[in-house]
Amino acid sequence: MNDILKDSPPSAVDNLFERSIIDVGIPPCPAILDRFTTELRKDEPDYNRLASIIGSDVGLSAGLIKTANSPFFGMHQRVRSVNDALTMLGLKTASRAVAGIILRKAFPNVANLERFWDASARIARLSGWLAQHINISGLRVDDAYTFGLFRDCGIPVLLGHFSNYGKLLVIANHDAERNFLDVEEAELPTNHAMVGCLLAQSWWLPEEICQAIRNHHDLVALESASSNLPVLSRRLIATSQLAEHILQKQLDLSITMEWVKLGPTCLKILDINEDLLESLYIEALPIAAAAE
Amino acid sequence: MNNIDSLTGFLDRSGCLQTAGRLSTDSTSGEKTFAAIWIDFDRFKQINESFGHLEGDEVIKNLALRFRNRVSGRAELSRMGGDEFVFLVPKCDRSQAQQFAGEMANTVEEPIFIGKLTMRPTASIGIAIHEPGEDSFALLERAERAMFAAKNKGGNSIVCSGDEPIPGRLGITLAREELSIESILHTALETGGLCLHYQPIIHANGHVEAVEALMRCSVNGENIPPGKFIPVAEKTGLVVRLGEWSLLQGTMQARLLQDAGFHTKVAINVSRAQLISPKFTQALHAALICSNVKPELIELELTESLFMDISETVQRNLKNAIAAGVSLAIDDFGTGYSCLANLKDIPARKLKLDRAFVTVLPEDRRALAVVRAMTQLGHELGMTIVAEGCERQEEIDALLDVGVDAIQGFFYARPMPGESLLAWLQARNSK
Question: CA of B395 to nearest chain A CA: how many angstroms apart?
Answer without folding.
Answer: 37
